[in-house]
């Protein structure tokens, strides 16, 4: 199975690799997946006072598609409001990266990571976590 | 498409093939031996009454001698098949059917190739009982555990010679002795071992042995099953019915060019094995030593009893498929789940007691006859760079570096 050019591009030049200060109340951190499953994503967002995501960083342990999915997610997150970020659907990632069916779980993981980061930010700032749909797995 | 790159003033073809346990390129000498049998010498080896049949038969007979010689057998003990999978099936199902009045128990090991495991599963459906022995942490069968598993009903012990994923060499001679002491036959899938290390059916006490041409620089689609004729005379029930070829054990018109190629491959392997094993284990050790300098990298399987051309290494905190993508200049294989249709990591590595995350982080390097030292040097450089790059991306590596115990984290259901 060959990778799409977009996967290769994100894999070779991953955007926004790194770490934000997870103790800051402006930062939300989502850590999803498990080493046993071969995928772990950590996605972080920095949110300003207007509820806009000003920065996003990731680190991922996983296959090329998992790395590309999280790299793409950070690109999409920057500049979005938290509410809009909540609307990112895994199928948007599948489409953008042309992921084959066996790699759809990578996009699901990225969506879960976004939501986990947003919820971490909400809880830190005294908001209720958003009830998530039942996990796709 | 392969391209050429200049590396240390050496021009080489990229990607570099380091997956010789999956298959090997055919040796040009083998191809030369085969070619006439596609055209001028096209006869059916079973045509007993004209020149064309005789010529083909002569080619097959000669190949039978070449194969037999490599494993210390007599040519009458060689049954040609379509490959090791068929040989494994014929041996296991054939022995079960032939000897089921004597007993219905077969012993094998969890690290066997799927061809053996699935043939055993089939035997279970036919009413047989199969014991799947665990292996020790180094991948070797525990002889005491084997001994304890033997019963008066045991008709066959089937343990591979060299493992395809980690390259460990089982104590075949000792295993055969235990099987024989309890009145059972001993079969070995020697696909990875024949042609790489000395294998002698008499010295080792082997009753049935499966081998394949394409793992030793021969063509795909041809292999053989050795079936002992003396002390004891072993019989297998045919799994393919038809014209009664191969002493009735395997019907079907013989693949003459393939068989000639298998013979030639065996002859070359026999002549070059000693020097080649020395050269390859030297290169393999160079690769392994250079890569285990990296922090948190581990060699999987016993390193003292191992095929000379294989090294299976886990690079902790990076995922195998992601790693392979960063090493796209190298053709290697990973025990990671993502490379296969199933999402389970390698069952061989898991049966060594490796945690799933280490199994996901493994890369198998399989060197071969056409691997050069410059290629190994290049592979070292590419792999080191890739591991370092992926660790920079890995949240697990960051946690490890911060001293966080990954086992203390409650990972989300996935």
TrEMBL record, chain A:
Q: Which CDD domains match?
A: IscU_like (cd06664)
Keyword Iron among record annotations: yes
Q: Which GO terms describe its biological process?
A: iron-sulfur cluster assembly
Stored InterPro entries:
ISCU, NIF_FeS_clus_asmbl_NifU_N
User: What keywords are annotated for this sequence in UniProt?
Assistant: Iron, Iron-sulfur, Metal-binding
One Pfam family this sequence matches: NifU_N
Query: Which Gene Ontology molecular function entries are recorded, alphabetically?
Result: iron ion binding; iron-sulfur cluster binding
Residues forming the NIF system FeS cluster assembly NifU N-terminal domain are 2-126
- Function noted in UniProt: A scaffold on which IscS assembles Fe-S clusters. It is likely that Fe-S cluster coordination is flexible as the role of this complex is to build and then hand off Fe-S clusters.
In the record, the note on similarity to other proteins reads: Belongs to the NifU family.
Q: What is this protein called?
A: Iron-sulfur cluster assembly scaffold protein IscU
The species this protein belongs to is: Mucilaginibacter achroorhodeus
Task: Give the gene that encodes this protein.
Answer: iscU
């Amino acid at each position: 199975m060959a990778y799409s050019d977009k996967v290769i591009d994100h894999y070779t030049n991953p955007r926004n690799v790194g770490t934000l200060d997870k103790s800051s109340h402006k930062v939300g951190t989502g850590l999803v997946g498990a080493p046993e499953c071969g995928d772990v994503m950590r996605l972080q967002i920095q949110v300003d006072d207007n509820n806009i995501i000003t920065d996003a960083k990731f680190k991922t342990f996983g296959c090329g598609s998992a790395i590309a999915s999280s790299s793409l997610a950070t690109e999409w997150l920057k500049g979005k409001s938290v509410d809009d970020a909540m609307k990112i659907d895994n199928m948007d990632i599948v489409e953008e990266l042309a992921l084959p069916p066996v790699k759809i779980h990578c996009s699901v993981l990225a969506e879960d990571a976004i939501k986990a980061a947003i919820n971490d930010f909400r809880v830190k700032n005294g908001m209720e976590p958003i009830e998530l749909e039942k996990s796709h797995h | 498409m392969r391209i050429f790159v200049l590396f240390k003033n050496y021009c080489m073809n990229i990607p570099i093939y380091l997956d010789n346990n999956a298959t090997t390129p055919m040796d040009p000498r083998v191809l030369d031996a085969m070619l006439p049998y596609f055209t001028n010498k096209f006869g059916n080896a079973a045509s007993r009454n004209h020149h064309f049949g005789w010529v083909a038969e002569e080619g097959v007979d000669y190949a039978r001698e070449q194969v037999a010689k490599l494993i210390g057998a007599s040519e009458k003990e060689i049954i040609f098949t379509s490959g090791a999978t068929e040989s494994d099936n014929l041996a296991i199902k054939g022995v079960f059917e032939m000897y089921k009045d004597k007993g219905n128990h077969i012993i094998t090991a969890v690290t066997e190739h799927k061809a053996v495991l699935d043939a055993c599963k089939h035997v279970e459906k036919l009413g047989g009982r199969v014991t799947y022995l665990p292996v020790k942490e180094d991948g070797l069968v525990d002889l005491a555990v084997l001994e304890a598993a033997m019963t008066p009903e045991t008709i066959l012990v089937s343990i591979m010679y060299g493992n395809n994923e980690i390259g460990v060499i089982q104590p075949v001679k000792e295993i055969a002795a235990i099987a024989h002491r309890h009145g059972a036959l001993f079969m070995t899938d020697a696909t990875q071992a024949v042609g790489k290390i000395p294998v002698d059916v008499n010295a080792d006490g082997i009753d049935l042995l499966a081998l394949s041409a394409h793992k030793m620089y021969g063509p795909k689609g041809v292999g053989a099953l050795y079936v002992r004729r003396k002390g004891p005379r072993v019989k297998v029930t045919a799994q393919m019915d038809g014209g009664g070829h191969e002493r009735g054990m395997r019907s079907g018109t013989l693949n003459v060019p393939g068989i000639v190629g298998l013979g030639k491959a065996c002859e070359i392997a026999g002549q070059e094995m000693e020097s080649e094993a020395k050269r390859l284990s030297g290169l393999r050790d160079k690769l392994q030593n250079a890569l285990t300098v990296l922090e948190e990298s581990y060699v999987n399987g016993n390193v003292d009893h191992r095929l000379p051309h294989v090294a299976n290494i886990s690079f902790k905190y990076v995922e195998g498929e992601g790693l392979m993508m960063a090493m796209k200049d190298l053709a290697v294989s990973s025990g990671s789940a993502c490379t296969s249709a199933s999402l389970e990591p390698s069952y061989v590595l898991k049966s060594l007691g490796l945690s799933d995350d280490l199994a996901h982080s493994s890369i198998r390097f399989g060197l071969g006859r056409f691997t050069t030292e410059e290629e190994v040097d290049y592979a070292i450089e590419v792999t080191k760079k890739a591991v370092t790059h992926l660790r920079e991306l890995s949240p697990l590596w960051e946690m490890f570096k911060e001293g966080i115990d990954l086992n203390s984290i409650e990972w989300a259901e996935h």
